Amino acid sequence: MEEKHQVLNLDNAKYGPQRTLVRRAEVAGFGFWTGKDVLLEFLPAPENYGIRFCRTGSDTEPVPALLEFRAEKPHQSSLTDGAVRFDMIEHVLAALAGEQIDNCLVRIDGEEMPGIDGSSRPFSDAVRAAGIQRQNAPRRLRVLREPIRLEGEWGRIEALPSENGEASYRYELDYSRHESAPAALQKQSFEIAFYADGTEPADRLFETEVAPARTFLTSAEAYHLLEMGLCQRVTPRDALVFGPEGPIENTLRYPDECARHKVLDMMGDFSLGGALLIARVRAHCTGHVQNAALLKKILEQTSII
Ligand SMILES: [Zn+2]
To answer: Distance between CA 224 and CA 75 in Å, rounded?
Structure first.
């Protein structure tokens, strides 16, 4: 028998009004992939503007952070309108989603977002330091009504309707199928729920539980990238590089930091729906490509309210 899910007592008021920044914020650093120095700015934006990206000094139309502008690029999420592109946007988007910023213009003087420590913390900190401005319009929501599941050799990912109106993400990480996977990358999972039980998220929930989780790779993957001429400026202190014994020249911020980072990536990727997604998203051994594929299905069966 088909499982029936119902979203009960969905009350728009509990999701609060739209939010932007009080003033401009900036984050400087270099792009992990290109090694180029960049300056990123977060600028306040009016109600219903959404998140958009533009290039410093250019007067072309900003590119909305929406799935239809997503560009395929390995191991990262990118946006393009065909003329300008913005790479490695997921940690920036996760910070904005985590801080519940609905409206913001992201301006950057290069193609790739700064990597900093491989987490969302620098972006999240900059937004909070600038201050968060509550606006008047209600938040835009997408409410999932029917379950959607994608499955393949890669793993599986599903979105389930939320019964209490929560927006939640769960990631199950499992490198046990990979030969010579470090023990620290064996099975772990992490789940976080926003708006559960009819309440606004605890003020520092994203900031303390998700934002600091850093991107990671195995030493074999790192050598491969270096051989290809990529990531030349990144050291094991900038991102988590796992050798057989664990992180090289680095220590974990959480025992399950990798699963937390995958949740961070999901929050960034699913924000390309252009609204707060009211659903329970669960993933097992997935990445940006599967996040985008599931979001495409979600957009087909939901509309913004
Ligand atoms: Zn990431």
So the answer is: 13
Distance 225 CA to ligand 1 centre (A): 16
Q: Is 288 a catalytic site residue?
A: yes
Please tell me the pTM assigned to this model.
Answer: 0.92
Beta bridge partners, 51, equal 104
pLDDT at 9 over 80: no
For residue range 287-301, list pLDDT tens digits in order: 899 999 999 999 999
DSSP 201: P
Cα 261 to averaged position of ligand 1 atoms, centre (Å): 6
Determine the Cα–Cα distance for residues 146 and 5; give it in Å rounded to an integer: 7
Active-site hit among 5, 91, 284, 288: 288
Render pLDDT for 244-270 as a digit per residue (tens, 0 to 9). Answer: 888 888 899 999 999 999 999 999 999
Domain ranges of the chain: 12-301
What is Dmax (Cα atoms) for the chain?
58
DSSP label of 147: -
Cα(289) to centroid(ligand 1), Å:
12
d(CA 114, CA 239): 13
The third-level CATH classification (topology) of the domain covering 12-301 is Ribosomal Protein S5; domain 2 (3.30.230)
**Dist CA 81 CA 66 (whole Å):** 11
> CA-to-CA distance for 290 and 172, rounded, in angstroms?
14
Q: How far is the CA of 234 from the centre of ligand 1 (A)?
A: 15
